[in-house]
Design goal:
- By secondary structure, the protein is of the alpha+beta class.
- Helices cover 16% and strands 33% of the residues.
- The strands form five sheets. A six-stranded antiparallel β-sheet has the order 2-3-1-4-5-6, with helices on one face.
Length: 374
Amino acid sequence: MGRTYCSIHVWSTEPVANGDFRFQSFSSGWQTYLPECDDFSNPEVAQKIARKISKSTQAPVLWFYEADGDFLCLKFYLDGKQFASYSGDGIGPNKNLFQIPQLIGYEEGQKRRFSRILNCSDPELQIPLLEEFFGVCLLPVPEWPEEDAPSVSRTRGDSRFREFAEAEKLLMGKHAPVRAEMVQELEGILRDADWEYLWFPESPKGPLPHFRTHYYLLSKARATGAESVPVCFRNGQIERISPEEMRREGADQPYPHRWIGEDPRFRQEFCPDRLVFADTAPAAYAGREMRLPGGFYGLGFDGKKRLVLHDDRQTFAIVDENLKIVAKQRLKGDIRDIDGDYILTVGEKGITGTIRVYRMVDGKNTNHSAMGGI
């Protein structure tokens, strides 16, 4: 199970004069708040304290939060008001991110580095990268004997980041082992459920009106009464199908939701996040377990029977038989489905959206493909 913990730090070379709170400087340029209680895991309480501290000092106040090892959040407060924020859960808002480097003493030219750190999908790696960037320990232990102070000291630098950037280049660059080429792009919205009961009769005892995997309704826009047509994601594209096939093959699933990455060959478990592979999984994975890297979930297996993961940042990853990520690529749109070597993504804006199909390609065998309609 991951950590759930908050910390508060003031960007100041001078000690913070506040009789209500205790501080200690473990790293140059930072004053770290020492909580009175051992349990400092409540983010709402910690944010109120950070805001209160910022009212009594002219310096920026950093509130940091790690949620069960799954994602990170941070906020900077000035004069009792939130100035900048980052939410790694993909739900909370991000604000003034690229003003943070200058806020803590950096000159111009650090925005790209900071952006790449925030886009790191593994909190276990993201935390030391942020600590190196900020120059402060973000996860000091609650009990801090003075003799252990050097263990929570941090110095600004870029050695960890350079190692990270080089590793990412090997996984995601133009010479990556696996790349993605877009083979189809459509305008419209995909729906995976028949909530209006236009295709299947309503039944109070179920099953619920979710279509089978790969089956969807395609509409030009998200609007009441918008015309929709049945389609199937197969053969490397979104294909229009007949009403007869939709009613025969797209039958509802007996679940309240159709989860991305549903696959009988593995199941996802939590605390810690891991995949447990069934005996029916490809031989390299059958009967094994894999601890998932932070932020990733199971998606399926490609045409070469390799495990494919995805995250909420539009990235897919290829996992080899040693359960190591050997390639990563970021796509346009949110990942929705996989069929062999093809991945389906959707991106919505207002009442309409864009649907794309990508083909995973090994090595340098990328071909130029035309965009297709249906």
